[in-house]
Amino acid sequence: MGRRGLRAGAGAATLLAVVAAVGVGGHRSHGVASRTAHAAGRTTPTAAPRASHVQIVAHPDDDLYFMNPDVEQAIKAGDPVATIYVEAAEANGRNARRGQGRTAPVDYTSYSAARHEGVRRAYARMATGSPQARWIASTISTAAGPVEMDHLQDAPQVRLVFLDVGTWRRPGGMQRLSGLWDGSVRALDTRPARGSLAPARLSYTRNELIAQLAGLLARLRPTVVRAQDPDPERGYDRKGKGHRIDHPDHTATAQLAWRAIWRYESSAHLPVVTEFYRGYDNRHWPHNLDASAERDKMALIGTYGDADLQVGRTGDLNGWPQSTRARYPGTTGWIAPLADGRMAAVAVVSGRVTFWEETAPNGAWRAGRPISSPGFISDLSLLALPGGRLAVFGVRVSAGSSITAPRYRILYATRPRPGGDFGRWQDLGNPAGHATARQRDVGAPVPAIDGRGRITIFSRNGGLGVSGRTQRADGSFGPWQDLGGHRIEDGLATGTDATGRIELFGAATPVGWRWDRPSGTPGLWHWRQREPGAPMGRGTYTATPGPVTGPLTMSTDTKGGGLTLLARVPETASTLAFRASRPGGSWTAVPTDLAGPGGHGPIGSAGASVLAGRDDLGTVAISDTGAWTHSGPLFVHAPGIALDAQGQPVIAALGVDGRLNIARRSASSAWRWQEVS
After folding, report:
1. What ranges does the record give for the region Disordered, renumbered to this chain (predicted)?
2. For FRET with 227, which of 109, 275, 557, 648 sits at 20 to 30 Å CA-CA?
């Protein structure tokens, strides 16, 4: 996170002892935490563990603000965890508390060193419980030159890498990472932090920096890569000028990281899964962490702020850390029953849509196999079609007119019969049409099929409303239609009731709502078909009795054929259930509070009786008796849930090792997990 708005300036005079001189024996002390210096040449990667995590962020503290608690959960699981900080993050060079910045001297390299010290403290606390734990510093050889990599002495699987790419004031204007990405800056020099073991100034072009990141990924061999938001939402400033709601260097880092991830995925001989996280726009939506999770997150940001005085203990004044939101929020509809009674699942692994299926009903699972070319983002949905067919929907990013203008397209492929192959991927385009810049705003595709067997695909659009495209009688699709809606979160929910009519919901906030000046109560936009085959009706906004937030999910009640809508309650661990008890009937005005598992992301439902979602440990929480149980692996995205042919719930999770995990009830009614290769 760069130094911005709510942060005061700072200076080297108050850096205290954060940067000390190299002492006898190669030891150096950075504040309270200490580092031992070692030099190391190029190493041959060792065999990868089952799960390994790498974060790529612009600034020290971006991971703490936007990716935790997920990073901390990986550390506490004992998995190898490394974070790559791309920028020197020197900002205005003033390391001083709020209100004291104007009098503080400017020292860019010392302020960068303070920020390095801050993340060392925070990671030491996550890994060992003490921010004072000792770090071992080393340099690694790369094609660009030596780079500093530190690891904890008592937890050597935890590593931090500092590239220190600088932001420079030049006669022609500011030269920064966003300019390197968009091509307005040809190359950027590094600005090594004071006391760095890699003090030589390096220079990166855009392609060289992508290659550097790809090389580091190849060295670290992660199964999970976390990055910032490559496509932040649009907003407007006070003068009405449109802009992306995030730091431009966050976006540039995410785009550079994405290209590096593609290179790494193409050569890695292990499964790779990727998660992108929202940034500054957290402040524009209801907060999705409960008080306990927020408190833990802020404690670590405060530990970081003991070194970065601009942050200090006031890191929650900007509305960012109170949420952890995936850019692509995931669906729970990526597992589904087949016509022959078996179950099937899909997920994006190493950029490709991967398909798994049982060998027999309630039997073993076949190993996953890719059914697409690379380039898919994580949100996939499975849809059972008439005649035993199966369709999978997703978004693929492919080369466009330039590296900075890729194409985002919603695609689907159909499997004509159980046991057969998927057909050719069909292009459903993008709600933004051919407007390349607007294509980036595409939301997760959410499909539904009505009583006449016609598919409608829904997606949130760049105007924060909803667009839909409906299948014609001949199987072709009509054009994208703007269905309206305002200020809707990504993570729509759709379902078909017993009469064959489609219903659609999106969580939304009133116009002008913001975390620190809420205007009205966050509620729901709702659309309903008048009858099967008819267009979706006009959407309406309803302020719910209490605030809600997405992503939403919907399921069909196996007993009465009604629908149940699930939503998270902001700032709590609770989940709300809204019900339409009969097909076409009105929805309950007062929802049922189902308590909740903590965590973040969608809560899925099977038959409106079994729930599954992420808990506050990063594992799967399941509710089938009114109480939540916690089990399963650390996982990415959202858990999948569906009923099998016998009406029994089946839960799926994509583990941080890139492997599918399936849970069914055992004879004792306990949930039994099975790992699939």
Report:
1. 227-249
2. 109
Q: Chain-centre distance of CA 29, in angstroms?
A: 35
Residues 6+ apart with CB under 8 A from 215: 142, 143
- Render pLDDT for 617-636 as a digit per residue (tens, 0 to 9): 999 999 987 789 999 999 99
Which of helix, strand or coil describes residue 136?
A: strand
Q: Is cis: bond before 271, omega within 30 of 0?
A: no
Which tokens go with 503? Answer: 């219903």
Closest CA to 319 of 373, 345, 282, 273: 282
Residue holding tokens 């087949």?
338
Are 262 and 254 a contacting pair, CB within 8 Å? no
Q: Is 668 exposed, middle or buried (0-12, 13-18, 19+ CB in 10 A)?
A: exposed
Mean pLDDT over 14-42 rounds to 40
Of the candidates 351, 337, 193, the residue with the CA atom closest to the CA atom of residue 258: 351
Q: What is the separation of C-alpha 86 from the centre of its chain, rounded to a whole number of angstroms? A: 19
Q: Residue 302 and residue 283: Cα distance in Å, rounded?
A: 19
pTM over 0.85: yes
Q: How far is CA 656 from CA 282, 603, 637, in A?
A: 24, 19, 10
Encoded tokens for 240: 């009405």
Helices and strands (DSSP H and E) totals, the chain: 8, 43
What's the rounded Cα separation, in Å, for the pair 412 and 395? 9
The answer to whether residue 48 scores a pLDDT higher than 50 is: no
* Buried b / exposed e along 381-405 (16+ C-beta atoms within 10 A): bbbebeeebbbbbbbbbeeeeebee
Residue 123 predicted with pLDDT over 80: yes
Within 8 A by CB and 6+ apart from 438, the residues are 430, 432, 462
Tens-digit pLDDT profile for residues 436-493? 888 999 999 999 999 999 999 999 998 899 999 999 999 999 999 999 999 999 999 9
Between helix 108-128 and helix 291-305 the angle, nearest 10°, is 140
Residues 377 and 348 sit within 8 Å (Cβ to Cβ): yes
Contact 501, 450 (CB under 8 A): yes
CA 54 – CA 58 distance, rounded (Å) = 13
63, containing H or E segment:
helix 62-66
Query: Are 288 and 323 contacting, i.e. CB atoms less than 8 angstroms apart?
Result: yes
